[in-house]
Structure formats: C-alpha cells, structure tokens
C-alpha cells in the first residue's frame, strides 16, 4: 500500500512540474553591441532607433579605451553631458552593462565627446 501512495504523489508532483513549465514565462536576455560593427563612437545616439529593449538585456560597449569611456548617468547627466558624483564609469573598452527597466542613460565623459553625440538613452520595457 505504501508503494501506491508514493507513486500517486510522484505523479501529482510530475503534473505540477509540467504545468509550471508550460505556463511559466521563459525570460531570455538579448545582447546588443552598441553601435553594431562601428562600436561605441560619435553619433551613437541614433543607434537605438528601431530596436526594442527589455530589462535584463545586455549592452556591450566596444571602444578604444585610450580614447573613450562609458558612464551610466541619470536624465540630467544625459541632457547636460555631465557625470554626477558617484556615477558608474566603465573603462575596459569591452564593457557589458545589464539594462534596468525604464530609461538607461550612457555618455562618454571625455570632454566634448558627449556633446558630439557620444551618448545614448535606452528605454527598456
């Protein structure tokens, strides 16, 4: 009799697992290279046009680290091309940044670069 109870419990557990798998939403992150083949450079601000981003997607910034950087900024920093105190700065030349839901702002903080279009605003659903 004990054997029968164990089999029934295993079957219920199996069915429950199957239901979870069938109804669960699989979250897959996409990886985008900023600027595509051209990389993170001047006039990158239009690169986001026509692309759809989600929270959890990853941006890869490829650039010459001796000439540029990537700084995660807020809306004011983006608009004014300034990096607020404590802003996260990336300098490797091959940086991976995971997007948060909402608008994510990035600039190059080398003087004159942001003003020349080296900035992007990425809206992640």
TrEMBL record:
InterPro entries: BlueCu_1_BS, Cupredoxin, Phytocyanin-like, Phytocyanin_dom, Plantacyanin. The keyword Disulfide bond applies. Residues 30-125 form the Phytocyanin domain. Residues 1-29 form the signal peptide. Keywords: Copper, Disulfide bond, Metal-binding, Signal. It comes from Eleusine coracana subsp. coracana. SUPFAM superfamilies: Cupredoxins. GO terms for molecular function: electron transfer activity; metal ion binding. It holds the Pfam family Cu_bind_like. The keyword Signal applies. One of its GO terms (cellular component) is plasma membrane. Transmembrane segments: none annotated. This is Plantacyanin. It comes from the Eukaryota.
């Amino acid at each position: 009799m004990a054997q029968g109870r164990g089999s029934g419990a295993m079957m219920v557990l199996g069915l429950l697992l199957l239901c979870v798998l069938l109804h669960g939403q699989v979250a897959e992150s996409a990886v985008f290279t900023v600027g595509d083949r051209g990389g993170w450079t001047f006039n990158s601000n239009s690169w986001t046009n026509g692309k759809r981003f989600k929270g959890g997607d990853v941006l890869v910034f490829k650039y010459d680290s001796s000439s540029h950087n990537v700084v995660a900024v807020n809306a004011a920093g983006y608009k004014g091309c300034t990096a607020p105190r404590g802003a996260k700065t990336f300098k490797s030349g091959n940086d991976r940044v995971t997007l948060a839901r909402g608008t994510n702002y990035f600039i190059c903080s080398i003087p004159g670069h942001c003003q020349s279009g080296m900035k992007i605003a990425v809206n992640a659903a």
